[in-house]
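Following the same procedure, sequence and fold were stored together, as reproduced here.

>
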Amino acid sequence: MSRGRVIACCIALMAGVGVGCQPEARGARGPAPVALRDLRSARFQATVYEVRLPGDRITGLDAKALAAAGDLRKTLEGLGVTKALYQIDQNVDLAESRITIGKDEPMVTATRKTQTGQVINAVRYQSVGAVFQISVKPTAQGLHATVAVEVAALTESPSRIMENVPAMTIRNTTMGHDGPVELGRPVVMLSADASSRDADGNAIACVCRVVFSEATP
């Protein structure tokens, strides 16, 4: 430090004023807050919704606007028929965590009638559910999260195998977030499909809301 710099610092200290007598800052924002830098686990809450809405409305869906909605479910219900498919609320290891929810669902693939009129269905089981892959790292600005979501679901299609046996459509949806997150602030991901509609002619949107917060005891 130059002699002139030392004199300036001494004058400032005598006057009770803090000036830049410290070493040069490493960056404009400084290091990450200790609480976030040392974070190893967090509470992870996620809800996956299915929304059935007219196909011409899917272009109006906006993930950021949905994340800012005070009551997401109420907002989605204003767009179309909404139901919650999966709900997660648990502590996770931020370095890397994988959460799987699923089951095998029966679906009719073919049907025939015997000479006596008995209906015989060919059934196979389809795996449905949701898989969450989570990785969160501290940065100088806060937390950076990579969240990948895969959802597999069955919905009735307009086609029929027989008069009272609807054909089923297997919907596989992949959504992701790769960016900053704040504790307590929701992130919304969505995917919408109007190319293969349900039995009522509606498009299907899959909406996932995730929130990270302090780990519960």
Residues 1-30 form one domain. The helical segments are 3-15, 34-37, 63-67, 72-77. The first strand starts at residue 41 and ends at 53. The two ends are 49 Å apart (CA to CA).
